[in-house]
Amino acid sequence: MKKTMIILAAGTFLLAGxxxxxxYNHDEHGFGVRVNVAASWEQEWERYSGGxxxxxxxxGLFGLEYRDLIPQIPEGxxxxxxxxxxxxxxxxxxxxxGRLGMTAGKHSILFYNNDTEYITFQGTDSWATAAASTxTxTxTxxxxxxLEGKTPPDQLYAAYIDNYEATATDSASTLPVxxxxxxxxxxxxxxxxxxxxYVALARGALTGMASGVYLIDGRTSxxxxxxxxxxxCHIDKDFGVWAVVKSFGVPGLxxxxxxxxxxxxxxxxxxxxxxxxxxxxxxxxxSGQLALQPRGGxxxxxxxxxxxxxxxxxxxAFDVTVKDWGEYVDIVLPLD
Length: 336
Hints:
Layout (H helix, E strand, L loop, with lengths): L1 H23 L1 H4 L5 E7 L35 E7 L2 E8 L3 E4 L4 E9 L5 E4 L8 E4 L1 E5 L5 E5 L6 E10 L6 E9 L2 E11 L4 E12 L1 E3 L9 E6 L3 E4 L3 E8 L19 E8 L4 E7 L1 H6 L4 E9 L2 H5 L16 E3 L5
């Protein structure tokens, strides 16, 4: 009798152990839909479009190398799973990917990084309308009038899978995803012939840039906006002013095409305040440069001069340590 009880107890213990093991590993070994996303990142800051091949002909300005402008891999991924254009699942993944839950059947899946600061998203309930833009902002110009424009975006990547059929199996499926840039970078250079040493503050504006981008294919909006930049500006007393400004590119770019559908007009404006408080504004037509660089590159203008008389006149009482341009006013407007 004692032996029988011992055997029964041992059998009960083993059975309990099996049940516990099956419970813990049911997701891995059971029959169901398991999709593991494997993400890779296309870290490009500009697209060659027939102008200068900056990767091979880099001018070496301001101590920067071509690779210094390459965007970093973001901190995470937002995944939207759609069934018949309606969002079914919204999930956050690690930069390398991870398990993405969904039901069996055909789906469309949209991915984009979820760590942006300045970008606003619209229409993500459907993959067909999902788009990104930035906040509208205004600032007071030196003449007293208001200038309305957009905040430059921070780095954005996206990927879209049009037709993915998830099936229930006894093992996980791997889904490779290549995250491609939706935002590109312009190195903007204002070269001074004379008087750069008198500049205390600088800010700029670039007109005619795309107001947003559609996430499924990188198509830029047809509407042009003015990018307002200030924090991006650096003053080099031997050269002038330079800035690293991100953008969706020019309007009318169709998907991955490198050529805009129509030629646009683009003006680059530089507004500087000298150490004596004097304000100066310069404007340049950069339409030709942007026609060859619709998605990132170098914008270079020359011929700016501040005479010694202009730079040294007055009391010189302006406090160059205080940025008193006035505060920006940010306004959120939807992308059409």
